[in-house]
Structures are given as structure tokens and as C-alpha cells.
Specification:
The structure is a homohexamer.
Chain A (H helix, E strand, L loop, with lengths): L13 H14 L6 H6 L3 H15 L6 H14 L3 H13 L4 H23 L6 H4 L2
Chain lengths: 132, 132, 132, 132, 132, 132
Amino acid sequence: MAMSNLIEYDQASTEVRAVYDDIMATRRTDRVNNFWKAIARDPTTLRRTWQSVKEIMTPGALDALTKEMIYVAVSVTNQCGYCIASHSAAARKAGMTDSMFAELMAVVGMANETNRLASGYQVEIDEQFKVR
Amino acid sequence: MAMSNLIEYDQASTEVRAVYDDIMATRRTDRVNNFWKAIARDPTTLRRTWQSVKEIMTPGALDALTKEMIYVAVSVTNQCGYCIASHSAAARKAGMTDSMFAELMAVVGMANETNRLASGYQVEIDEQFKVR
Amino acid sequence: MAMSNLIEYDQASTEVRAVYDDIMATRRTDRVNNFWKAIARDPTTLRRTWQSVKEIMTPGALDALTKEMIYVAVSVTNQCGYCIASHSAAARKAGMTDSMFAELMAVVGMANETNRLASGYQVEIDEQFKVR
Amino acid sequence: MAMSNLIEYDQASTEVRAVYDDIMATRRTDRVNNFWKAIARDPTTLRRTWQSVKEIMTPGALDALTKEMIYVAVSVTNQCGYCIASHSAAARKAGMTDSMFAELMAVVGMANETNRLASGYQVEIDEQFKVR
Amino acid sequence: MAMSNLIEYDQASTEVRAVYDDIMATRRTDRVNNFWKAIARDPTTLRRTWQSVKEIMTPGALDALTKEMIYVAVSVTNQCGYCIASHSAAARKAGMTDSMFAELMAVVGMANETNRLASGYQVEIDEQFKVR
Amino acid sequence: MAMSNLIEYDQASTEVRAVYDDIMATRRTDRVNNFWKAIARDPTTLRRTWQSVKEIMTPGALDALTKEMIYVAVSVTNQCGYCIASHSAAARKAGMTDSMFAELMAVVGMANETNRLASGYQVEIDEQFKVR
């Protein structure tokens, strides 16, 4: 995959560094992922994306580990190589064990299978699921 | 969406009824979803699919609610109308509240967004994510 | 799903009717699917799409039934409701039995599952698959 | 793509070796793909996945070659690099010629195109496709 | 598709009404789409999503019509029925003619086709595309 | 990704060279992308695909740059690494600036997000979008 131009901390503008600092403080780390360094080519995109991610990934009704595992589930379903690598690492950092990973993958695989069985067999939605 | 031929309990063969009974016993319910009634047109598919789902969805390192929410996350990502309806209902039955649902959807939405930013910006996988 | 404006035979221009006639002659039928009537709103799209489909679906190294089943496999994977309905019908017309359908669906489901296991487990491509 | 930890035959537990032996015997080969060696990190996943694949890929109403080509069709649609490589090789081993491959790819490409035309033009499902 | 609980203007809280007012003012309309009324069940999601959409869809280097057509392209690719309907309407409101729509759909269809040909034929990225 | 067999100009048949010549003349370049060289393994696929791409990408109601950006939008949504690389380059050649790219990516990301919110919240299509 092509190597994108990454905006390293020492090259970055004040605006971009402010976001990098917030990422590192929030995630309690001393490095910034390539993802952020790549989208930093457009400071508006960096700012807005981090703002949303920060808000969405804050533990709430769902804890951090659950949120990270959902992120992995989506990334695997979409076959995003970068995202699978980075979010699997984040999930492990949040406490995902090998057993949790194996069960997560099993559910993701099965869901991708039954999603197609449901559409292929043209299953009509049950009445009781229709009213909310 | 076309209505598929559903194999109702009273029409079903002994083999199919055995699976229906196991589904209802395992899920502690007195009904069988249209999904199972549809794939029951092929008893082998019904048996094997239920066997896998039963095994995979048994609480383990991940509890039942987490597994159901992952199932919703995948179904939403894949835009499977039937699956979103049925698994959202299953997740609520397993304890998903409105707040959990909102946070789950927020993560699913954001992950689908950043998956594309990562590929569009052609981000190279960080070295530290490459070695496992 | 919204009802699109369909160009019926008696409303159609000479150019569009020519395509409709060729579809009916090639497929040995006296009706034209809604799909063709919908894209006929742009005669260029209708002409080019039918030209490609006609060429691609002509029996060759693969017979008509195999080609129709592949079409169903893709449509199911993509969750296209219209396409699943129309191509399943076409496959049955080409000779697909209930057993074939069940096996086709089983493969489609399993492939969608193992595709995600492969990416989630970040499996490196075997050396022997790399050289062609 | 990150290199996953692969469980080689000589490192494997008795349980895992039993599955490897069955894979090699069934496929009449003396090697095990990286896919199996990767998911072998979770023996339950390995066992269940192989059990399903073995059952589903056994020739029946559809022969082995047709099943492998359907597997390729799905893998290509989902853009799974590992799966495309390994299943294309399996299809060739099952008898897929260059002509078959070209026709398979043409159908897969066209189906992915018309799936989108159908949804973009918001085509309503024909009455005759609705009743099964 | 199941009807979701929509939060109508007269039922809405002050916070939600403020967002509805901003949507209507920005889009110069006197109604709010079902999409906003549905996600309004979680005011945080409504606020954040509208904030991002408003910022991203503001004309800039790309004009409003181009942005709406890109939105349609993605929605069609993802087979999102709701989104195709609503964004096609928005694109027409922004100036999309029948000819533009036909050309947009042709590109979307072709791109979905060649994306699969590229992965199925396992094409290596040209050297000159690798360096940015 | 595996390196495919590419048919270089000097190895190519007269039929294939004719297509290569047309590609280079139409695109005003002295090279042919790996994509064309790969599908050239099947001259029928090469001819038909180029014919369609040439027709579809000709400026019309939409100009060349808009068409290339739509192509990028689809390729990013589908996570096609080859296509993202080659079409981003084509878009830049057609006049896409860094600002346009950033805005394009922002819309693609947002659309992929709201597509899932719409399906996850099971939003019913507004009446006014249903009639065309």
C-alpha cells in the first residue's frame, strides 16, 4: 500500500500539534498513529475527526473495551487492513485477551454469514420486530 | 422484500422440529424467528447454522449482551434489514438499553467513517502494529 | 423502496424498443424486467448495459446456469434485494434446483465468514500463492 | 499486512494436529494453508470452521469446481486479498482454466455493476419475483 | 423496513428543536427528514452528526452539487435504500439533472465493476502510484 | 498482494496493442496502467472494459474531474487499494487539488457513517422521497 505523506510532530503547525497533544494525553501514550499523521494533511479533517472519535470512544453506557471491540468488528467486516491492525492493538491495550479476541472474531464471522443467508433466502421481517 | 416460504412448526419434519425445540429451549422463548423457518427449507443448513450460532453465542470470555451488540454492529455495517431488526430485538432482550444502543451506533458509524479515511489517505500500517 | 419511473414498451422510443426486443429474443421471454425499464430512462445506459450483459452471460467456458448462480452469489453478498429476487428467478429458469440453491447459499455464507476470519486474524498470503 | 502468529504442525497440540491431518487428507495435499495455521491459535475456531468448510465444500448438487468458483466470486466482491489468492489457487487445482477464470471475473464485475444500477435507479421488485 | 420512533418537532426538547431549526435554516426548508427525527432519540448523536454534516457539506473547493452527488455515489455503493432516496432528492434540489444522474450512475456502476476486476486479477500497484 | 502476469506492449497481440494504443491516445499518455496489462490476459475483457470506461468517462453533463472524483469515492468505499492509488492519481491529473481531495474524503467518510446510522436506526423512507 502506498506510503502517504505523514505530518510528523516536529513538522506540524501549532494547530496540528494541539490535536496531537490532546490525542496523546487522552490515550496516555507518547506517540501518534500514522492515521492521525496522514489526515493531518488537512487540519480541519484532523480536528473534526479527533473531536468525534474522542467523544464517541469515551466510556459511557459501554466501556472502553467494548467500544474498541465493536471498532474491530466493523473494521474486519469492511476488510480495512490498517484499521484491523491499529484497533486490534487498541483493544488489547484496553484489556482484550486472546479468548475475547477469538470469541469476537467468531461472532463477526458468523454474523457476516447469517446476514447473507437472511438476504439470500429473502426472509421477511417478523411482525414483532416491525413495531418499535 | 419477497416473502419466503417459511416452514412452520406444524409442517416441519421431525428433524426440523428437533432444531426448533432446541432453539426455543436455548433462547427461552416459545417462538422461532422467520430466519430459521426460512433456512429450514434445507434441513442440513438449518442444523449446521444453528449448531454454529448456538456454540458461538454462548457466553464465555464475552457475555451474551456484548455478543449480541457485535452482531448488530456487523448487521448494520452490512445493511442487512432483517438482521438489524432481529438482532436489535435480541440485544434489547439481553439487556441493551437506549443509551447502549446510541453508543453502539455511534461507534459503528464512526468506524465506518474512519475505515474509509484510512484507505483513502492510503495510510501505511505503523511498524509497531505489524509484529504480533 | 421507491417506485421508479419505468419505461413501458408502448411508451418507449424506437431505440429503446430495439433493446427490449433483443432482450426478449435472447432470453426467450415475452416480458422485460423492471430493471431494464428503469435504466431505459437513459437509453445509452440501457444499450451499453444490455450489450455487456448479453456478451458476458452467453454460455462459454462456463454454462448459463453457473453464470446465473455466480450472479446470485454476488447479489447476496452485496445485499441487493432486487437483484437477489430477479437473479434467483433467472437461475431457477436456467435449471437451479432447491438442492443447488441450498448449496450455493451455504458456500456464499461460509465464504463471507472466512473472508472476515482471514482479515481479522491478519493472515499473510502463503508464498506459493504469490507467484502466478 | 501484518504477519500473524501461525501454529506450525510441529508446534501444534494433538487436537490441532488432528484437524491439520484431516485437512491434508481431505484436500489430498501435504501442506496446510496459513489461514488454518492462523485460526489454530483458537482450537475451537479451527475445529468448527474446518468442520463447516469440509461439509459445505463436499461435492453434491454442485461440483467442487463450481463451489470453488463461487468462493472466488464472493472473495473478489469482498476484496479479501488472502482469500482471492488462496481460493483462485484452489479453483485452478479443481480444474478452472484461464477461460473459466476470465468468464467468472466478467460475471463478478458485471454483477457488482448492475447491483448498484438496480439500487441507484430504485427499481421496484417485479410482482412475479415476489411470490415464491 | 421497520418504522422507527421519530421525534416530531412538537414532541421535541429545546435542545433537539434547536438542531431542527438549524437544519431547516441551513437547508432553506420547512421540514426535517425522517433521518434526523430518528437519531434525535439520542440528542448527542443528533447534535454531533448535524454539526459534522453541516461543516462537511458546506460548499468549498467542491460545490454543493458535487458533494451531494458524491453522497449518492457512496449510498448507492453501500446499497442504503433510505440514503439513496433522500440524497438523490437533495442532489436534484442542488441542480442535478437527469443527464447528470445517468452519468453519475454509470460511473458508480463501472467503478464497482473495475474495483473487482482489479482485485480479482490481483493487480500490483504501479510504481508511479506508490510515491506521494 | 500477488503480482499478476502483466501483458507488456512488446509481448502483446495486435488486438491487445490496438486497445493499448487507444488508451494512450485517449488519456494522452505514453504508458498503460498495470490494470489494463493484467486484464489483457483475456483480450475480450480488455476490449469490453476499455470500451465501457472510455464511453462512461468521456466528459458530458459531468466533467472529467467530477467523474474521476466519483471513481475515487467508490474505490475508497470499497477499500480497493489498487483503485484508490490509480484513480487518485488520475483525479489529480484532471485537476484535483489537495483541498478538493480533503473535501472529497470528508464527504465519503461522512456518507459511510450516515448510511449506517440510517439503517441502524431503521429509518422509514419519507413519503415525499417515495414518488418519482
